[in-house]
Design a protein that fits this description.
- The complex is a heterodimer of chains A (about 90) and B (about 150).
- Chain A is α+β, with helices and mostly antiparallel strands.
- Chain A has one domain: Ubiquitin-like (UB roll).
- Chain A has two helices and seven strands, in the order βαββαββββ.
- In chain A, the strands form two sheets. Chain A has a five-stranded mixed β-sheet with strand order 2-1-7-4-5.
- In chain A, a hairpin with a 2-residue loop joins strand 4 and strand 5.
- Chain A starts with 10 loop residues before the first strand and ends in a 6-residue tail after the last strand.
- In chain B, about 35% of the residues are buried.
- In chain B, about 30% of the residues lie in helices and about 35% in strands.
- In chain B, helix 2 runs antiparallel to helix 3.
- Chain B has three helices and eight strands.
- Classes of the chains: A alpha+beta (about 90), B alpha+beta (about 150).
- The interface between A and B is medium-sized, with 18 and 28 residues.
Chain lengths: ~90, ~150
């Protein structure tokens, strides 16, 4: 995984929401994946330099909530979601 | 085992809810054949969670996933409670104290299923749908990390 630019074919779109967005200072970013191996959502988070993935943060890949250890593939939309506070 | 057909209307809106008009329209068109309708309306409080005067409440969501999670929860709960119709209106954007945040209405053949399903659907909105609140007080915004107690 690295930040090299850009081959759209091996990129993942990463989305942050609410407090995570404020903490990071950005809302969405495209990350290039190495073709040598498969990364999990947690590993991609670790590469964002935002500290350890908080236990209460949920992970969604392509708008489906999954385990943080779920594999991420090129072209996926990966979102990190703080605890919900709607209603 | 077959499931009863359900009737859902879900709207996430970035402008003030005209709750009277939208509820009346829904009641006339959807729930008129049911004997019981339970309605919950939630408004923005005057104070922050820690007791300071609230200037505004900012609500954001994850478009797409949010609507699908609400629909999935609503279908499951309607079936579980043998209720038939549900209306969910939820605001996003910047809201002022007193403004309506959420309206949930459920109709069923009897009051028990309607009331229980309405309450359960509201809790699902709070805990299962990707909405986030930020309180603004004295020009400072604070993201909430949990909901108010039931």
């Amino acid at each position: 995984m690295n930040q090299r630019q850009p081959d759209p074919g091996d990129q993942v779109k990463v989305l942050l929401f609410a407090s995570l967005r404020e903490q990071a200072g950005w809302s969405d970013r495209c990350i290039s994946l190495s073709r040598q191996r498969v990364f999990s959502a947690r590993e991609i988070w670790d590469g964002l330099d935002l500290g350890e993935l908080p236990r209460m943060v949920l992970v969604a890949i392509n708008q489906t909530i999954v385990s943080p250890d779920h594999p991420v593939h090129a072209g996926d939309e990966l979102a990190f979601l703080p605890p919900f506070t709607g209603g | 085992m077959g499931s009863n057909p359900v009737d859902l209307e879900i709207r996430i809106l970035d402008q003030s809810l005209s709750e009277g008009l939208q509820l009346e329209t829904w009641l006339r068109s959807r729930a008129v054949s049911d004997a019981a309708t339970a309605i919950f309306m939630g408004r923005v409080r005057e104070l922050t969670m820690d007791g300071r005067p609230l200037e505004a409440l900012e609500l954001s969501h994850y478009p797409g996933l949010c609507e699908r999670r609400i629909e999935s929860c609503a279908r499951q709960l309607l079936e579980q409670h043998s209720a038939r119709c549900a209306l969910v209106l939820h605001r996003v954007g910047r809201l002022l104290p007193g403004e309506l945040i959420v309206l949930v209405a459920v109709s069923a053949d009897r009051r028990g299923p309607a009331q229980r399903c309405c309450a359960a659907l509201l809790e699902a909105l709070k805990h299962e749908a990707p909405f986030w609140k930020r309180e603004w007080s004295q020009g400072v915004g604070t993201w909430l990390s949990s909901n108010t107690p039931l």
